[in-house]
Structure formats: C-alpha cells, structure tokens
Amino acid sequence: MKWNLTLLLLTVFIAVSQAAIIPHFFTQDDEPAYESSTDLITNCGDDNDLLTIKDITLNPDPPRAGEKLTVDFEGTLKEDVPEGSIVEITVKYGVVQLIKKKFDFCQEADKVDEECPIKAGELVITKDVDLPKEIPPGRYSVHAVITTPEDKQVTCLDGRMSFPRHR
Q: How much of the chain is helix, strand and coil, in % rounded to 5?
C-alpha cells in the first residue's frame, strides 16, 4: 500500500514539474499574448465566402474583463443570407475545448438589430457586450463558421483573447 502511495505522489510531482517546463500546457501565464484586434481576429475563410470583411475593430483593444466591449464590423455580402443559416462556434481555454455548439444565425442576428434574410450589399454593425469581471484568467480561442442551408460558407473567423490575472 505504501509503495502505491509513493508511486502516485511521484507521478503527481512529475506532472506538476512538466507543467512548469511546458508553458501553457497545464497552466497559463499572466501576460496577454495578443496586443490588438489585428492580432485577435483573423479571417479563416477564402475568396468564395459570401462575406468580404473590410474591418473589425474592438474597443477597448485588447478587451478587458469587467468592462464593456464595443465591436464595430464592416463588410460586404455577395448574396443574401437566408433563414436556416447556421453559426458553428468552438471555444477553447488554452488547449481545452469549452464549447462546441451550433446556433440559428437569424436568432443571433436579431441581437444586433438585423433580421433574416440579410440582404446582399454593405453591412455595418456595432455591438456592445458587457464582459463579466469573473472571466478566469488565461488564453481563449474562438473558431466560428457561418453557413447557409445550401452549405455555402458565409464566413469563417478565428479569434484569440488573453485575460490577465485579477489584481
């Protein structure tokens, strides 16, 4: 019995020491890794996407826990985005997947005062989001893809954010 306990403790200490050697694998550091919205949000789509993104601006930049985040978006739609379009979102904390979920795009569009079908043409959206101050410190990543019922990709976005430890 003592041998099993010793082996267990040795395994725990090795795992903890590896966490210090391999940063961000078991723990995450305090320093934000990304400086501005140009670092935070990238287009993972291609030229065939229905949405051409001109600009995405965040304020404050980078976002801070416990503050209001304003997102300004500007783009052009090549075609209408119809009812039945889907948003698929994956959220990770470090390497750990927190959420993988599909949403009805039109229900989400209602939250920014848009309604389906969203007509082709220029698109300008401003949205305020209150970020809770209780956001656990660390690095987060978001992958979002919007597709139509005909399986045409509207857009693909990757986002990254770091929240430092509360002081």
A: 20, 45, 40
